[in-house]
Amino acid sequence: MGEWTTLIDPGTADVGRSDIHGIRSEWLPDAPRFAQIAGDLAGQLDGCIPVAHNERFDVGFLVEEWGRAGLGSLKLEAVDTLPLARALGLPGRLGLLAGAVGVPLDDAHRALADTRALAGVLVALLERGARPPSIPIFDPPLLTPDPSGIRQDRPSVVA
């Protein structure tokens, strides 16, 4: 399985804390809306075990956007590395946790960079004896839209 990422137009000029996530509103006019990439996202997750750091936030966000897009309800669960780390006495913040287990995290708060680091963090936690309470495998809803193939990369050079 490869990597998949896209900017998403949130439908508002307010993109939140650009100083944290680095996304600029001028990048988004041609970016897809969530409804346009929902089928692509579901296809990427189909049959996989979703992993999140602070599942309540990440999964809650996706479930909310799925519903706002008029796609009905979405049953999505993930292995949450936050309680696994805390159970081992490790830091809760992803950047600190990654450093504590020797996983590089470049460009923190960028979805793809955080995801790459999280994969390494999960391996490190499992190697240290962490055991998730469940292993949820994602099964898309029956009426999931077809993948659109639409995506927009973050600009590689920012002036």
Tags for this model:
159 residues; mainly alpha; Nucleotidyltransferase, domain 5; 38% helix
Written overview of the protein:
The protein is mainly α and 159 residues long. The protein has a domain at 18-127: 2-Layer Sandwich (Nucleotidyltransferase, domain 5), CATH 3.30.420. The protein has 6 helices and 2 strands. The chain has helices spanning 18-21, 34-45, 55-68, 81-87, 94-100, 111-127; strands at 51-52, 79-80. A two-stranded parallel ribbon has the order 1-2. α3 (55-68) links the parallel β1 (51-52) and β2. The longest helix is centred in the last third of the chain and has 17 residues, at 111-127. It starts with 17 loop residues before the first helix and ends in a 32-residue tail after the last helix. The model has no long low-confidence stretch (mean pLDDT 92).
List the helices and strands and how they pair.
Elements: H1 18-21, H2 34-45, E1 51-52, H3 55-68, E2 79-80, H4 81-87, H5 94-100, H6 111-127
Parallel strand pairs: 1-2
What is the CA-CA span between the terminal residues? 33 Å
**Which sequence of SSEs, written as H and E, runs from N to C?**
HHEHEHHH
Q: How much helical structure, as a percent, in the residues? A: 25-40%
Uncertain segments are none
Number of helices: 6
- Beta strand %: under 5%
Structural class: mainly alpha
CATH superfamily of the domain at 18-127: Ribonuclease H-like superfamily/Ribonuclease H
Q: Order of strands side by side in the largest beta sheet?
A: 1-2
Choose one word for the global shape: globular
Strand tally is 2
Radius of gyration: 16 Å
| Largest sheet composition | 2 strands, parallel
CATH class of the domain at 18-127: Alpha Beta
Gross CATH architecture of the domain at 18-127: 2-Layer Sandwich
What would the CATH topology of the domain at 18-127 be? Nucleotidyltransferase, domain 5
Could you report the average pLDDT, rounded to the nearest whole number? Answer: 92
